[in-house]
Design a protein that fits this description.
- By secondary structure, the chain is an alpha+beta fold.
- It has a domain of 158 residues.
- The protein contains eight helices and five strands; from the N terminus they run E-E-H-H-H-H-H-H-E-E-E-H-H.
- A hairpin with a 2-residue loop joins strand 1 and strand 2.
- It is elongated.
- 19% of the residues are buried.
- InterPro entries: DUF5828 (IPR043868).
- It holds the Pfam family DUF5828.
């Protein structure tokens, strides 16, 4: 592993970059890091059973997509909002007929808000679709697969392919300098104390059970564990 101002970099085969991600994740946990930003990186980092051009590409496109707007967060489609806008406009006319100017203006304003929210949701959906398509089909051919949030900035790139297999580079930067120093110390301990790192792999006990005609063994780490 190389350490520089831009982060912690590992060059090697797929197993090497998977191990690098696992070490940094564990080092962050040992430094007391938790929360959404940590789990987002833990979900994104390359896994032993994944492929860079399929799984990591999909996760990167999802991570890079435009955030949800108010309408999407409320679970409303553009059609839902347009229907509500029409209902509010009708109510506004009814208030005018009742000489309720204040009520009419209130309903009219609500109608406009729903129209605006519908337009926002439709725009985000269109941008997201184009963004995903462009990223998957074009950008990953020229740029690394990347991740970025308030905690971590990372990218993994396939740098060579030959008879000996593929070679990758995985660089991870911890955005907070003090935390980065803590992580660096923990990683240094791993380098000096751990001779062989046990890479996590997805369990497939169901396949074994089906082949042998026995019940799968209880998974280690609790009922929700999927790694060993």
């Amino acid at each position: 592993m190389e350490e520089s101002i831009s982060g912690f970099k590992q060059r090697g085969d797929w197993g090497d970059v998977v191990e690098h991600g696992e070490r940094i994740t564990l080092a962050l946990r040992e430094a007391g890091v938790d929360g959404d930003a940590f789990h987002e990186f833990d979900d994104w980092r390359p896994k032993a059973h994944e492929r860079i051009d399929e799984d990591v590409s999909e996760k990167t496109a999802k991570q890079a997509s435009v955030n949800e707007g108010d309408g999407e967060k409320a679970g409303k489609t553009p059609g839902d909002d347009l229907q509500t806008a029409g209902e509010k406009l009708t109510e506004s006319y009814e208030k005018v007929e009742e000489d309720d100017t204040e009520g009419a203006m209130e309903r009219w304003g609500e109608s406009i808000n729903h129209v605006a929210r519908a337009a926002d949701s439709a725009s985000r959906k269109a941008i997201r679709k184009v963004e995903d398509t462009v990223y998957r089909k074009v950008m990953t051919q020229m740029a690394p697969y990347y991740f970025d949030n308030e905690l971590i900035s990372a990218n993994v790139t396939e740098v060579a392919r030959g008879d000996d297999g593929e070679t990758f580079e995985f660089e991870v930067n911890v955005n907070d300098d003090e935390l980065k120093a803590e992580v660096s110390d923990v990683l240094a301990e791993y380098e000096s104390e751990i001779d062989r790192w046990h890479v996590e792999t997805e369990k497939r006990t169901e396949d074994v059970a089906a082949a042998e005609g026995v019940e799968p063994p209880e998974e280690e780490g609790g009922p929700e564990s999927t790694m060993t």
